[in-house]
Design goal:
single chain, mainly alpha, 10 helices, elongated
């Protein structure tokens, strides 16, 4: 991605598209990191608030430990607390890494499809129709076939890149979607039904983290679908059909038709072939989690009664 996307040669408009992709990546990554770290902080700080109202023999740790030492006594308690806090932050840093990598790659692929749309439609259309730049106009007329073939090669490279991305992340995405569905259900159950305030805070931030990650990678996958399909419209908006007739232009029009036909089949990321990841996946996961939560709540009410 660094070699072919970030360090490629772009004009001003293409650079602005790439800058927009970077801003989106920064927003999603910062949001994910923020919610994840808030969850870890709530895990670590909740015992401190509880211990304010207890004596030394009743102090609690973020996580229970079973050791043959007086764990509540000083300095064992302080050593165990610092160890658990450091371990929690380490787990937090590794928790969001895979989703962030997938989101960054997806948004940059969508940006490359947007750049390809610009090269097919806007980059030369104004020059050919209005004659704003006679040199560029003449260059496109004399080299239209080569320019269009370069766009086709870029399209083929993006399709291959999406297939490789599917091979790497297909199983991971499947596991994530299933896990997010269960986590949203269980976190919501804990937030609404647990009496302890500190536990509510912990699972509330964890619920926000899970929903943020779900939206993050489902939105980025949806961007690939939309931008890859929009290539057909961009090609029709370009100057290719308005070029003067010649044998090379006739061959170009055949390639043009093939590009349109291939664009009708969107590039996408699926969960090992079981489903295509898009924003619709996000709504389905939240709906499924709501159904699970209703079953848990009914079971809880039956046990209570």
């Amino acid at each position: 991605m660094v070699r072919n996307f970030l360090e490629a040669d772009y004009d001003d408009f293409e650079t602005s598209i790439l800058t927009t992709c970077k801003r989106k990546c920064s927003f999603f990554v910062c949001s994910s990191v923020c919610f994840t770290e808030l969850t870890i902080v709530s895990y670590v700080c909740a015992p401190l608030l509880v211990n304010l109202f207890k004596n030394e023999s009743e102090r609690v740790l973020p996580f229970k430990m079973y050791l043959n030492v007086p764990i509540q006594a000083t300095p064992y308690f302080e050593i165990a607390y610092i160890t658990q806090a450091l371990a929690s932050f380490s787990i937090g840093f590794s928790y969001f890494s895979m989703d962030n990598v997938l989101c960054i790659i997806n948004l940059h692929i969508a940006g490359q499809f947007r750049i390809l749309q610009y090269r097919l439609s806007d980059k030369y259309s104004g020059q050919v129709q209005n004659g704003l730049d006679q040199k560029s106009d003449l260059y496109l007329k004399n080299n239209a076939s080569d320019v269009f073939k370069s766009c086709i090669r870029q399209h083929q490279a993006l399709i291959t890149y999406c297939k490789q991305l599917q091979e790497v992340f297909g199983l991971i995405v499947l596991v994530q979607v299933l896990a997010f569905s269960m986590l949203i259900c269980l976190d919501g159950f804990q937030v609404l039904l647990v009496d302890l305030v500190q536990r509510k805070v912990i699972f509330f931030f964890h619920l926000l983290t899970t929903v943020c990650q779900l939206i993050m990678f489902s939105y980025s996958c949806d961007c690939i679908i939309r931008e890859s399909v929009n290539l057909a419209t961009a090609a029709f908006s370009g100057p290719w059909l308005q070029l003067p007739a010649s044998k090379r232009i006739e061959n170009l029009k055949k390639d043009f038709i093939m590009l349109i036909m291939r664009s009708n089949k969107p590039c996408c990321i699926s969960g090992s072939g079981f489903f295509i990841v898009s924003l619709e996946t996000c709504t389905r996961v939240i709906t499924t989690a709501g159904s699970y939560f209703t079953l848990l709540q009914q079971a809880q009410n039956n046990i209570s009664s």
